[in-house]
Write a structure and sequence with these properties.
The complex is a heterotrimer of chains A (about 350), B (about 500) and C (about 300). By secondary structure, chain A is mainly α. Chain A is about 70% helix and about 5% strand. In chain A, the strands form two sheets. A two-stranded antiparallel ribbon of chain A has the order 1-2. A two-stranded antiparallel sheet of chain A has the order 3-4. In chain C, strands 1-2 form a two-stranded antiparallel ribbon. The chains are: A mainly alpha (about 350), B alpha/beta (about 500), C mainly alpha (about 300).
Chain lengths: ~350, ~500, ~300
Amino acid sequence: MTVSSPLGHTSSRDWKALLRCHEMLLLYVLVAEWLFFYFAGTSTNRRGVLIGFGTLDRQFDVLRHSCEIGLLALALTPVILTGGIDLSVGSLLGLCAIVFGKLWHDGGLPIPLAATLTLALGAAAGGLNATLISALRLPPLIVTLGTYSLFRGLAEAITHGSVTYTNFPAGFLALGQERWLGLPAQAWLFAAVALCLWALVHRTTFGRSFRAIGFSPEGARYAGLPVGRNLALVYVIAGAIAALAALIYTARLGQAKADAGTGYELFAITAVVLGGTSIFGGTGSIPGTLLGVAAIAVLKNGLACLPVVMRLNAAEEMSGLLTGALLLLALAGSVMSRMVSQRHPRRRPRASRPSPHLPA
Amino acid sequence: MTAPLLQLRQITKSFGGAPALRGVDFDLQAGEVHALLGENGAGKSTLIKIVTGAHQPDGGTLALAGREIRALAPATAHQLGIACIYQQPALFPDLTVAENIALRLESGPGLRRINWPARHARAAHLLTRIGAQISPAQEVRTLSMPGQQLVEIACALGAGARIVIMDEPTAALTQEEQQRLYAIVHDLRRSGIGVIYISHRLEEIFALADRVTVLRDGASVGTHPVAALNETELIRMMVGRELAPIAAPSAAPPGAVVLSVRGLGCTASGVRDVTFDLRAGEILALAGLVGAGRTELARILFGLTPADSGSITLHGEQVALRSPAAAVAQGIAYVPEDRRRHGIILELPVAHNITLALHRRIFPGTWLRLAAERALALGFIRDLAVKCSSPDTAGGNLSGGNQQKVALARWLATQPRVLMLDEPTQGVDVGAKVEIHRIIRQLARDGLAVLLLSSDLPEVLAMADRIGVMRGGTLAAILPGAAEARTVMAAALGRTEQGAA
Amino acid sequence: MNRYFREFSVAGALAVLLVALAIFAPGFYQPQPLLSLATREAPTLVVAGGMALVIICRQIDISVGSLFSVCSVGAGLLAARHWPLALVLPAAVGLGATLGAVNGLLVAGLRLPSIVVTLAMMVTLRQGLNLVRQGRFVDLPEGLQWFGLSQPAGQWLLVLAALALLTALAWGMRHLAVGRFVYAIGSDAEAARLAGLRPRWGTFLVFVLLGALTGLAALMNVVQSPQVQPLSGSGLELKVIAAVVVGGVAISGGRGNLWGAFAGLLLLACIAPALTHLRVEAYWEKAIQGAIILLAVVADGIRSRRPAR
């Protein structure tokens, strides 16, 4: 996970400085978290073999398990940068997994073709969100709430609520279960997506305009930026990445079922916000999101290795609880930083583009 | 002598380091109309917001009927009988007229039952009293701007306010509605209410006000009985300097026609049948009253509200401007009026703000080239003398004048063929104003076609090669740059016979 | 009247559905299944009433599902310790109100966006509940189911209570000053402040009210079965928000009313049984709900764009 800030040679801006500060803080938390679990969650069994958090296998497990949520978090970062939100990515993951399974199993398509079609479906589903949000100017929250229900519902309708597709060929399953060049296979895909999004957000005019739109959609329009097109783009990208996450999910578990990815959107949003991206739009970074994902993943897997948690058999719940608490803490932190940097009166709630439920 | 209704002493207020008021004194007697006058950005709105409790002053005292009030909140101000008719009515768009009036007027426990028939009856009564043809059951969002203003006035009347503040109340009213408003103001005065009246229209001040206080750059220039003043003196107090020629209008003959507009109109924004030519190296100023349609015209030309009639020709080639992106591609630049919301993006650094409209050219292939961007930004910061610590400073940290320069730099960077400036010196300090004027003049001299939209008459007179006067959504007249203030004002008001005199 | 166009169009859609059922699947109209359906939806209706208030106030709360689960389990545990109903009821309502107050404090006090606050609340509560309960069911004592009444009597009681509550809320929103304050705050918080209202206080109170109503709804759900499921409220937030939005309450605040939300809930609630009776697979329910939500927002979007000002 890259540590160095991507923001290069610019430092004197206050929001950027705050973000950097947030990222550093998160990095410290991550390191402390990791060290804690390394010492508290590692032990040797009777035969003198190292078990628990400190083992390489366990570390790879952490990586393996965080890829899907990590991908969704990456996909959501540009969306939230523009001041929007996409609640439908988890459902879309489920729909894409099902469609992929059906194309391969019932449709008899070869895996590469089925995968390509699935990615196209993800982009098209993102396109539905994009059309409603950017062309009809509907609030993203409620649009994606609708598609959240729609996508999951379609997945259930296709499978009649019960069909699970299994028996995928080993070549495909390798994507989720094997190692390539020493790392879990999906980690390479994840890294590639992260790199692409980092370049998009931090190194292209698109990223620049996402920020401008997030800070002030009207201001971006008055600068002649293609606001509608760029808004549409972030939702389409989010859809395509959700489809990719669906493929990896299917490969990891070896099965595609309708409830794949349920609740993932919440963890993804949590990771993004934890990573310092402002839910109000404008501020945020891909490395921050990666740190957020890592913090949540280490927490979840580390807890599972603690003897006390193992005895309670409550790793999932503990990590969920702590994640929620972390999110609240991060929010409170963002309020503090906003109070520090409050230079201009807050924007009036009624901008011409309805932005739902951001505070007045 | 009884204590004045309202007395302000040495009020100061600043926003993020920029002083808006620097020690203002003001008082209001019962039964008088006290006009508050000043250029845009002189601090009138801030002063009003302090009286209504919307802002807390940083220093100074506020006394009502001799009693000093600390920490005035909007609710208390309302209880103490202060009512304000805002320029942009602060109404609830989703609720009916009757309910809007009731929310302002009714008080009492939250669990009381609402008497809807009484609400409607009172609203109907108040609306008839000001002669407004508005049904109490109408939703406010369906009302026009003057309609909403009338609702505000009805609220103030109904509140039995002792102090009524009117912030440019006639700006959007028809002639007939204005006359009715004058009658209402006279009525209020007779019943012992103090009225603070803000207007740009001098004739209105002479017709209505007893005294006038002039604000300039956040300080009071003085308070005088209106009867002791004439227009020239008032204007001089407002402007504060003799209107020395800022820069002599260009002697060089204007070049070829760059922009040609024929019969342009847009029903949605109320602009109709606008026809003019703009030449290279020329400054065409658009004057007119607030609400005359200047900004609306600029928005059409920038593709924000596309035209639905007429034609736009650039360099002899007819163009369709359906979006800002299309307008930018055609070499049209627009520095908007609302600098903080539209002109720049406050949170973005100066460098990013400057390149925001230039992405295609400076970042070919969409990859950011940070070094080139920085060089470009530094160049503009130097050329326009923008005061900022570095190109990375957030735009919101600059003063108004420097923000305006950044907004200007953004568009100069695109090397436009037509530059539209909407109130370029509104709310900037005098020094920056002079500099901005110099820059605009220099741009014109370099052959740029400039469309200058301004409600600052001295600015129009000093800068323009030709003056277009807008009235009621159309271009009413085009006058030579040497026209007199009276002539321009008369054209703006639609009284040519007076101008001819 | 144009003003209530949305409410009438939802009611119209509902009427069409009911007529279609009467013609094609008269089996739908049997008293006992209908009463059971109404009973199942009664708690949802109570939550929807509260949610409508929150959305009218230009906020949103997606933690109601978790809150509902927590209150259900809490009420169940108290009842299992043989607390009398007269104490369990205020305890459930109080627990809900307290949790709602936490949301309200964070949203109104710290001015955080309600979507993220309630998201965090949702995760925290749900996982906290899992941690404490480990998915165990709560066995309820004998006399609690249907309040110790016969099943039909209990069902009628729940349905009528929910309707009475909705009527009271709808009346209050229309005829009490506080109700109108909620509309005013949602319509324009700044104008509300200028008119001397206290928007933040009002926002806080609607969250508390929604919490209290959710607590009550949880109890209304608990008494319907001999056991309390640990995650009885999952998915409730979406169902409720969907009902409210479909019923014409604008997500941008200030518009809509509770009867619209009622019609919206009925419409969504009838889909599943209608599908069964029309011999469509029930798995389409969620997809159809999603499509209805999208249809409603698209209709709103197109309608609000037409009058060019």
